[in-house]
Design a protein that fits this description.
Blueprint: E1 2-5, H1 8-16, E2 25-28, E3 36-39, H2 41-44, H3 54-60, E4 65-67, H4 71-88, E5 92-96, E6 99-102, H5 114-129, E7 133-137, H6 141-150, E8 156-158, H7 164-168, H8 181-189, H9 195-200, H10 203-210, H11 212-222, H12 252-273, E9 277-285, E10 291-302, H13 305-316
Parallel strand pairs: 2-4, 7-8
Antiparallel strand pairs: 1-6, 1-7, 2-3, 5-6, 9-10
Bound molecules: magnesium ion.
């Protein structure tokens, strides 16, 4: 799953300033060499886009609201979003401040469907941060990143195995990660403008034009093949799950049911991440917000639900 916020900086500005909503907001460097970092969808209608010189954006959209940006605030919102990601996958690979890959391989038991899972994630991001995300789900990273972009803004696109070629073929080659202006031009010299044309291109001619390594990579991507794993940057030192109740719990059976549910989720995430835990910690917050944390060491490091559950029940009692 690839998750990407829509017009992130501009969206945060519109969130924080009611008077910016529905208007062309352009977050850009001011000054002679300033460039646009993000602009709202209202500004895109005027032809403004990121990486464009601010001076040009001013010409295209003189009525735009130009702001230099509050990067401390963007970082804050980003952290809140990544915290949500952690609840949806044990393997999160950040790509930038506002996008990440989430490995949801093998999580079928935790979701009604991948689509429902993505809808829940989008809803939670919107509810907790006010930001709209687009999601792409596909068999690999390359395709997931393409998918998240297909129906932006507020997109949710799934590319199943049997639809890969159909989705890819009509897209321009520059949609391929790493195909910039220069490579795009080289390919156009061979009459290759779409990914479909790239897939069907004569391989020898392709090698001659762009070199061995590149040709090989391009040919694979054009077929939708990509075996890079989702690679989290920092390995988690702890994995946890928590739940807040709308109404206080009173009976012990309910409490044990909750502990079991949490233990199963944590155990699952540990196993997915290939970890075992040596310590189990329980955090309990009461209706008046008094918070208790208690922890215990397991005899042997474990990722079994039952071990985690037993420890949690002991700690709870
Ligand atoms: Mg984005």
């Amino acid at each position: 799953m690839h998750v990407d916020m829509d017009a992130f900086y501009a969206s945060v500005e519109q969130l924080d300033h009611e008077e910016y909503r529905g208007k062309p907001v352009i977050v850009a460097g001011i000054g002679k060499r300033g460039v646009v970092s993000t602009c709202s969808y209202e500004a895109r209608k005027f032809g403004v886009h990121s990486a464009m010189p601010t001076a040009k954006a001013l010409k295209l959209c003189p009525q735009g609201i130009f702001v230099e940006g509050n990067f401390k605030r963007y970082g804050e919102v980003s952290r809140a979003i990544f915290k949500i990601f952690d609840d949806y996958s044990p393997l999160v690979e950040p790509l930038s401040i506002d996008e990440a890959f989430l490995d949801i391989t093998g999580m079928e038991n935790l979701m009604a469907s991948p689509k429902e899972y993505a809808q829940r994630l989008k809803a939670e991001i919107l509810e907790k941060t006010g930001i709209v995300a687009s999601v792409g789900i596909a068999p690999n990273k390359f395709l997931a990143k393409i998918a998240s972009d297909l129906e932006k803004p507020n997109g949710l696109t799934i590319i199943p195995h049997d639809k890969v070629q159909e989705c890819l073929d009509p897209l321009p080659v520059k949609r391929i990660w790493g195909v910039g202006a220069k490579l795009n031009h080289q390919l156009s010299l061979l009459g290759i403008n779409t990914i479909g044309q790239l897939r069907q291109a004569d391989y020898k001619r392709l090698v001659k034009q762009v070199g061995d390594n590149r040709a090989q990579k391009l040919a694979q991507l054009a077929q939708g093949l990509d075996d890079r794993p989702v690679a989290p940057r920092d390995k988690a030192k702890s994995i946890g799950h928590e739940v807040t109740f709308g109404e206080d719990l009173y009976c012990q059976e309910d409490e044990e049911q909750v502990l079991l549910d949490l233990a199963v989720r944590v155990g699952w995430r540990l196993r997915q991440a290939g970890f075992k835990a040596k310590t189990v910690q329980l955090k309990l917050r009461k209706g008046d917000f008094t918070t208790y944390t208690r922890q215990k060491q397991l005899y042997d490091a474990s990722n079994f639900d039952e071990d985690i559950f037993q420890a949690a029940v002991e700690l709870f009692r």
